[in-house]
Amino acid sequence: MKLDKATIAALAEHLENAELQARDVTKITDEHPHMDWDDAYAIQDEIRRRKESRGHRIVGLKAGLTSFAKMKQMGVENPVFGFVADYMDRPDGGDIRTSELIHPKVEAEICVVTKADLSGPGCHLGKVMAAVDFVLPAVEIIDSRYRDFKFDLKSVIADNTSASRFVIGGRSRDLQDLDLRTLGVVLEKNGEVVSMAAGAAVLGHPLAAVAMLANHLGARGQVLPAGSFIMTGGVTEAISVAAGDSVSVRFQDLGTVSMRFV
Ligand code: 0L1
Ligand code: MG
Question: Which stretch of DSSP H or E encloses residue 139?
C-alpha cells in the first residue's frame, strides 16, 4: 500500500461526503497518482465502515464494468467490485429523487441470492451454479461522484463503484429454469427502447462475475457468504436519466422493473 491510514480515512470522508451531499469532485488519483489497488479498496472499505458505524446495513455486493458494452463505454478492461447499502434500495414502480443524486445513469442487471458460501481462489462457474438460490432482475442507478464520470479504475473503486440506488422487481426464478446467457433484456426510457442485450454480454455468462467476486474476496482472505445478494453488473451500457424520465426494463422470464425519476 502506498497511502497511510490518515490519508485513506480523509479520502473516504471526502468521497462519502460527495455522495451524501450530491456534489461532484475530481478524481482522487489526480492528487494521489501513486495509490495502488489495495489503497483503492481500503478507501472503499473505510466508506463501508463509516456507513455501518451510522447504523446502515450492507445489503448486497456488486460487480461493475462486467459487460463488454460498459468496458467499451468506460475504456477499461477489468471488472470492479463494490457494495450496496440499505438506504440505496428503492421499490419497484417507485420514485427516485434526482435532487439526491449528481448525474444518475441506469443499467439493467441480472442478480442472484446465494444459498452456500463461495470461496476463492479457484471459484468457477460450476461452483457458483451450485450455490445460487434464486435469480432476480434489478436496475442499478449509478452516480459517479467524479465530475462528468471522468475517472480511472482506482478512483472508481475507491468511490464504491458509483453505487447509489437500486430497484429489485419482476419475479425470482430458479436458475435451472433459465438460460442466463440468452436471457434477453430490453431497456425503455419514456416508452422508447434505448438499449437491448442478452445475459452473455456480462463476461460471457453473468455468473462468471460472481466467481470473479468470490476470487477477489478470497485474495483478501474473505468468503462470499450464503445468503448474499449479488448484482452481476450492467448487461447494457449505462443510460443517463433526469427528472421527468420513466424507465422500464423487461427481462425475459423475470418480469419488469420500473421507476420514475422526479
Ligand atoms: O456498476 C457499474 O458498472 C459501475 C462501475 C463504475 C463505473 C461507472 O460509474 O460507470
Ligand atoms: Mg452496475
Answer: strand 132-142
Rounded CA-CA distance 262/166 in Å is 15
pTM score? 0.97
Instruction: Provide the grid cell at 118.
Output: 463461495
Residue 245 within any structural domain of the chain: yes
CATH, residue 230:
3.90.850.10
From atom 6 of ligand 1, which residue's Cα is the shortest distance away? 161
The phi, psi pair for 147, rounded to 5°, reads -50, 130
Structure-block grid coordinates of residue 166: 437500486
Q: Give residue 235's domain range.
A: 57-261
Instruction: Indicate whether 187 belongs to any domain.
Output: yes
For residue 247, the CA-to-ligand 2 centroid distance in Å is 16
Read off the pLDDT of residues 1-53 as tens digits, 9 standing for 90 and up.
Answer: 999 999 999 999 999 999 999 999 999 999 999 999 999 999 999 999 999 99
